[in-house]
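Recall the central idea of this unit: under ordinary conditions, the amino acid sequence of a chain determines the structure it adopts. In this exercise we apply that idea directly, starting from the sequence alone.
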Amino acid sequence: MSTGYIGADLRRLVALRAERLCEHCLIHEDDTFYGCEVDHIISEKHGGPTREDNLAYACLFCKRNKGSDIASLEPGTDRLVEVGRYPTAAALRRIKDQG
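Accordingly, the structure predicted from this sequence is:
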């Protein structure tokens, strides 16, 4: 359960940074029935701070699949991988523009 309040200005900053795209699957919030919301990358229960660099804009499905864990087993390989450390939408666009 979240204990840190994410203020309106910080929520707006994260949404604008992501250009209103889920920063995990890149779906636009207008294209998903439930929209997107700001989510901690490293959850508060694991010591994740409520700061811009630890917040991602996420659709409901990505947020629910991520949960509050900081790592998970990759299906089919059983390799432990960090959860929530996906490149942001802005980073993916920079990579595309440079390529």
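The helical segments are 8-17, 60-66, 89-98.
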